[in-house]
Specification:
The radius of gyration is 21 Å and the shape is globular. The strands form 2 sheets. The protein has a 6-stranded parallel β-sheet with strand order 3-2-1-4-5-6, sandwiched between helices. It has 2 domains: 6-149, 3-Layer(aba) Sandwich (Rossmann fold), CATH 3.40.50; 165-329, Rossmann fold (3-Layer(aba) Sandwich). It is α/β, with parallel strands linked by helices. Helix content is 37%, strand content 17%. The N and C termini lie far apart (56 Å).
Length: 330
């Protein structure tokens, strides 16, 4: 293969899965320092790419248009996207998503070289290098494995998200608006995930929050816009609630926090990439599950599969004390 001058990376959803492509993006940049790298994702995740130093341009897919049922809107979005893909003149496309939608988009890019770690032979038609999934590893390592099998070399694996300065500035302003002090120990809680089966009960988070507030630690409860109603009990108790702030501002709030506690969700994977100390509550730990990348010990696991509610408050308080206890004694 000739050295690619224009590379397309495809990863559509979700937030955490996009963040977990960061080490692979860095490997592509290391191997092809002069290439222009473009990342195709959905509109709601496009802002994340501002923190990927190895990405030069972003293409945003309007998935809502394709799911609207309106043929004019669907056709218009398809034509727009095809024009952008063809205008990119990509020489290599790397599909880090691996579903039917991403297979079509990778094929339609027109790139003469197309790579993907293929789970289903029926999609092999979309790729020139469909690599068989013969190992079960962390999702981020899956992407690295694909690149290695396609001949790329990597030095140290870098999972480093570069938060834009404007996002950190907005986070500092949010702290000030909530009468929070960036110099004080802060616990950021992310109670809700993409699935109820991954959620530790909110009341348990509030018990943890009350304990640490009494010890002098500042508390923030975060989430998406849809989490605001569910977090009203926290707001009524006087806790600072950041649910609904822009994605990168959430990154800034976590950057300013001492510890980030929550379930298996995109915000926590972003916190890891920001270099923050994380404690992830998981309903099970199995081969290939998305543990905090490069920090498998930053986990409190349920005593049995699908039983996250059985993680005790005492267990979480003990785990948080290892980090926050030191911070409160300084």
């Amino acid at each position: 293969m000739d050295t690619p001058r224009r590379i397309l990376i495809v990863r559509l959803t979700a937030m955490g899965d996009v963040v977990l492509t960061l080490p692979a993006v860095n490997v592509l940049r290391e191997n092809f320092p002069a290439a222009k790298i473009t990342f195709l994702t959905t509109q709601e995740n496009a802002a994340l790419l501002q923190g990927f130093p190895g990405v030069d341009a972003t293409l945003a897919l309007d998935r809502a248009a394709f799911r609207s049922g309106n043929p004019w809107r669907m056709g218009g979005e398809l034509i727009r996207l095809l024009r952008l893909l063809r205008a990119g003149k990509f020489s290599l496309a790397v599909d880090l998503h691996g579903n039917g939608e991403s297979a079509w988009l990778t094929r339609l890019s027109g790139a003469p070289e197309r790579w993907q770690w293929s789970h289903r032979a029926k999609r092999d038609w979309a790729y020139t290098r469909p690599i068989r999934a013969d190992v079960i590893v962390h999702p981020a390592e899956t992407h690295l494995y694909l690149l290695a099998r396609c001949g790329l070399k990597s030095g140290s694996i870098r999972n480093e998200f570069a938060l834009p300065g404007s996002a950190l500035q907005d986070a500092r302003a949010w702290f000030a608006g909530q009468q929070l002090d960036t110099a004080r120990p802060t616990l950021y809680l992310q109670p809700f995930t993409s699935g109820a089966h991954k959620n530790w009960p909110l009341e348990n988070y509030l018990v943890v929050a009350r304990h640490w507030r009494a010890a002098g630690v500042q508390i923030i409860l975060g989430g998406g816009p849809g989490d605001r109603p569910a977090l009203e009990p926290a707001r009524r108790e006087g806790f600072a609630v950041s649910a609904g702030v822009p994605m990168l501002v959430t990154g800034g709030l976590m950057q300013l926090s001492t510890l980030v506690l929550g379930g298996d969700t995109g915000a926590l994977h972003l916190a890891v990439a920001l270099g923050r100390r994380v404690l992830m509550l998981m309903h099970q730990v199995t081969p290939g599950c998305p543990l905090p990348f490069q920090h498998p010990d930053w986990v409190v696991a349920a005593p049995r599969p699908e039983a996250i509610v059985e993680i005790s408050v005492a267990e979480v308080l003990a785990a948080t004390a290892k980090v926050l206890g030191q911070a409160t004694r300084r």
